[in-house]
Amino acid sequence: MPDHPAAAAPAMVMNKKYLVCFLLLFCQSLFSLSPQDADSIAVRIWKNECGGTVQGLTCWNQGENFASLGIGHFIWFPANSHEPFQETFPELLKYIQSQEATIPKWLLEADGCPWKTRDAFYQDIESPRMKELRQFLLETKSLQAAFIEKRLSQGLPQMIRSLPKEKQANVILIFTKLSQTPRGAFALIDYANFKGLGILQTESYNDRGWGLLQVLLNMKSATVEDYILSAQEILTERVKNSPPERNEERWLKGWLNRIQSY
Fold it and tell me: Measuring CA to CA, which residue among 148, 233, 224 is closest to residue 179?
């Protein structure tokens, strides 16, 4: 990834009068992904979410009421489904369409995920429609990585505005420093896709969120090492606060291993 011209950023950020205006302008250039960068990030996210397999591009996890599709396991709800998590697959399709990529007609016409249950999903897993879906997701993996980056850049102002003014500058400085290295940029992009931005009240247990914003607020220094420790603490806290019937403990080891890979 290229370096970003942010030498003057700290002085500007500390002037709180211009904080949000600066952010709106600056965040647009935080990530400037070359095609090579997008491909590299796509492969790493694909490995994290799907084990790097084509079969993993179409998934429905046990204990969940929705499909998880693509390299980022974008959520797709069946029609009339109500879940506390943010649905991202329809938004991805709109982005891919805006890039003039070909999308299977049935996907564009679908009213929500056509498989209503996990059992129905896997009964159909080798159907022509499902194979076409996996091929489409394989061919658009770089666009999916660019979509993840775009969502993070556009969501950053929302993250900052959700904070008290006295906390905004520090979060911006930490985010900016991390975004300026390939390792830090990937950690930000992957976690935001993995666990969200942390600004939705519905994505919390006992009023404690687990998204990127909570990780940044929990950090003591702007290093990837501290980011890893913070993310592991936030996810461990999530599991402790989760409803017992969800049995989230079964996922924690994998989540922590994923964070450690940053």
Answer: 224
